Amino acid sequence: PPYAAFLFCAENAAVVLQTLRSRCVELKLRPAADTDAGELSEAAEALLRALGKGRRGAVSELAVRLEKKKTTREDLSALLERCRAVCAAALLLPYGCQPEGSDREIAAFLAKNLTKTQIMRTIELLQKYHGECTYNVGASHVLGALAVELEGIL
User: Is the pTM value of this prediction over 0.85?
Assistant: First the structure.
């Protein structure tokens, strides 16, 4: 029936047949215990607010603070994914899609202060550097490169 839905759970998407995956929406979830969610959420919000304010140097300052805290690649990857999700929600706001809970305020802030092009470019960069975190590269290198490119968007 139209109200039915199937939920396929797998640790690796490759184990689900391609014919099924082509008809599905993939949701990547992590165990809640992997990171300190409160600290991660604060850092993600700080990054997004720095972007939304458009003040030159704010993103670089935040990158330096994260580097000094010895942010791991895994935590940085989760932070970038969280920021990407909020940016995507900001893009959908003008079309009537409201984000959940705490994302609502920051998504509205981004939608108000950044152009659609800036948000799209930010999403692309966040995806790019989220992918870089899967390689054996230092988090500080990723943070530096990301800060330079994000500053270029402003």
Answer: no
